[in-house]
User: Fold this.
Amino acid sequence: MWSSLDHVIVAVRELDLATGRMARLLGRRPSWRGSHPAHGTANTLFRLANTTLELLAPAGPGTVARALAERLERAGEGLAGLAFGTPDADAAAAALRARGLAASEPQKGLGRDDESGAWREWRTLALPRDATRGAWLFGIQQLSPPEVLPPATPLGVERAAVEGLDHVVVASPDLDGARRLYGDLLGLRLALDRSFEARGLRMLFFRVGGVTVEVVGRLGTAPDAGAPDRLDGLAWRTPDVDAARARLAAAGIDVSEVRPGFKPGTRVCTVRDGACGVPTLLIGPEPAAPPASLR
Assistant:
């Protein structure tokens, strides 16, 4: 049903300011600066290797703009939504309804790039918030050729830039309910369901299009089926986490030292600011060992 995590949406107040911050964080130029005339919103897109980051801001009258403004007033800037890519919105909507999830009829959308004047088209299928545990989740079928949205080019050395999304974190007070939503209803592949006693966590790892949706809950607490899930953070993948960390520090961004990652063979650092309210991790591989002849 889903071919990708098509894009992740970050709600922001001032689009120009947020675009500069995210360009510094990713080490890449935006792919698109546009607007949605029918919705009263404006956006910046960064197309990466396996997903697109969308910064979304209210810019005029419209139902989406009103909902976004209310979200910003209530919770501030931060990770607001996940859009799952499908090659056939009609088939995806029918499959979701057959599973018991009341997907809407697909609706056509249009976006215009302010600089080039190019238009992009898509079809979205909405999912009711009471069925998605309060999270803004929806499906999208892209209708325009991929080249209309060019890849985000690096601002400097490519190995120090973000290349793609490793995982998105969802915090849930009811992991069995979340497992039913993401696995049984949405149909994402559950790669692992594991408890980590030392960390006091149970974690569900769902895979889609080379990205992990990591659903996390506390051990030893009673499930709260009435409480909503929270889109809680992003972990960006980079070829060289040391170079990425040095780049961010040189730009004045508060970033932790590099440390071993939880996943074997990885190293990570935490971005403490400059991420538009999104808890952010950079993750990269351990450096390759030098050849035996050089040791």
Observations:
- The chain has a mean pLDDT of 95.
- The domain at 158-285 is CATH 3.10.180.10 (2,3-Dihydroxybiphenyl 1,2-Dioxygenase; domain 1).
- The helical segments are 15-26, 63-75, 89-98, 175-185, 241-250.
